[in-house]
Amino acid sequence: MRHHLVLPLLLGGMMVLSGCNALGNADVSRAVADAEAAEADSIRDIMLTVAEPREAVDYFNRKVRDFPDDIEHKRGLARSLVRAGRQSEAVLAWRKVLTHPDAGHEDTVELADALIRTSDWAGAKEVLDSVPPTHETFKRYRLEAMVADSNREWTRADSFYETAVDLTTKPAGVLNNWGYSKLTRGDTAAAERLFTEAITYDEDLFTAKNNLVLARAGRRTYALPIVPMTQEERAQLLHTAGLAAIKQGDVDIGRSLLQDAVDTHPRHFEAAVRALQSLDA
């Protein structure tokens, strides 16, 4: 009687173990596939961020050659070419991305960005015009604003800049661009306000600090603005203010500011020294 009970139990245990092994193998396969995909994504992210641009271009060129139907590799190549400063090649790479059946509106926006980097403003406008208005992204509107700026369409530019600012949590860069647009139009008060706002979002954005000094100098206010700055930045901003003063005919003020720049800089400030020597000559 005992033997009759043991046999069914053994058979049942074998079936359970067999089922567990089958399930385990499937789980392992999925885990391996997921790990490989995650690793590929990690490598791609590294190549697009911290890797040396030329190395990234070579990596994605190999991937595109080995996997010609993978759109992510094509995108990676296009972005790497932009990082490497090879903008004309980047334009061609983004055009190839757009031939892929999985290409989307954001790829079209990236092509417009690459065209702007080659100063093909007309081409960028044509590409952006092909993007439906329902595709509302920060980058799309930032580029729209830049194109409108290039065409001196100030009302459109302001509208696009405003929309772009509303679509990002990090608007410092676009606020700086908007401020520079205002500065080129001679609206120094608006430019100063926008540069100051940009700095409140990013205290390390030196370009906005430098532009702020230029905007203030436009109305002959040469004192440095009260914004966060390192000692070296202070020296550089004094240098900017000094050159702006000299350009506007306030030579004595400019000389004093340049001397302050030399005295403030933690190291030897060659540019300011040369400017002072030119004045003395």
Layout of helices and strands, plus pairs?
Elements: H1 2-49, H2 53-66, H3 71-83, H4 87-98, H5 105-117, H6 121-129, H7 138-150, H8 154-166, H9 172-184, H10 188-201, H11 206-217, H12 231-247, H13 251-264, H14 270-280
Helix pairs in contact: 2-3, 3-4, 4-5, 5-6, 5-7, 6-7, 7-8, 7-9, 9-10, 9-11, 10-11, 11-12, 12-13, 13-14
Describe the fold and architecture.
With 281 residues, the chain is mostly helical. It is 77% helix and 0% strand. The chain is built from 14 helices and no strands. The longest helix has 48 residues, at 2-49. The protein is globular, with a radius of gyration of 29 Å. The chain starts with a helix and ends with a helix. Mean pLDDT is 89; it is low at 1-20 and 31-36.
